[in-house]
Amino acid sequence: MRDILEDLEAGKLLSDPDPVRRAQIQMKTPLPKRFYKAVSVVPMENGFAVHLDGRSVRTPGKAVMVLPTEKAATLVADEFSAQSEVIDPVTMPVMRLVNTAIDGVASDPQAVLEDVLRFASSDLLCYRADGPQGLVDRQNELWDPVLDWARSRLGARFNLAEGVIHVEQPREAIAVLGAHLGQRSEPMRLAAIHVMTALTGSALLALAVDFGELDGEEAWAAGHVDEDWQIEHWGQDAEAEARRSARRRDMMAAVSLLEALQG
């Protein structure tokens, strides 16, 4: 299922999941020209559709793209409106996420839920550096409040470890997260949680955003403490910066969709 999700999240119109490699390929492969003039959001019996010149947008799987709220549909419509002479799916992360939800997650939400729980069993927040002290302090500052929240609000207590040696998490904690995720099985909501989990390495950060405990920027910062530390001390090359920018864009798209699904 994770392979399927990664393929769908990349989008069938995308040539490679790596943003730098994708850009290199797309310099050689012409993007489809924009073929429409008007973009609109149209109420449907079961939600809101995005229309291009009066015709419904369909997913790569040929399903009509119907979103549960007008705000969510507007996010996709805005991405279509922003296209100029060509349609570049790289710049349409919400559309790609919605495609993932409709064509992939909706067919087997339990598999996606279980994938999120696999992340939780080795959650980023549970693996602490043993030095330098500045990094240790920053991890504690950004991660401890989330673990405290998970314990007090969700009833899930996690074990911590230094370094990368695997630490077994209590089955009760994973079961509690599973119960909360089970209440979030709507395909688009679950797809957004999955993307945030995969991009941060933390199911706890994704759930904290879903519950409103963290905003997207806070979750991004918490999920990239180690990377930010390395950048501050050693710098970053252009390709790494491009990859990070693409990941951040997809993260914020997931956060925006999650917020829009609430009406």
TrEMBL record:
Family the entry assigns: Belongs to the ATP12 family.
Transmembrane segments: none
Protein name listed in UniProt: ATP12 family chaperone protein
Pfam families reported in the protein's UniProt record: ATP12 (PF07542)
Matches recorded under InterPro entries: ATP12_ATP_synth-F1-assembly (IPR011419), ATP12_ATP_synth-F1-assembly_N (IPR042272), ATP12_ortho_dom_sf (IPR023335)
Keyword Iron-sulfur attributed: no
Entry keyword set: Chaperone, Transit peptide
SUPFAM superfamilies (UniProt xref): ATP12-like
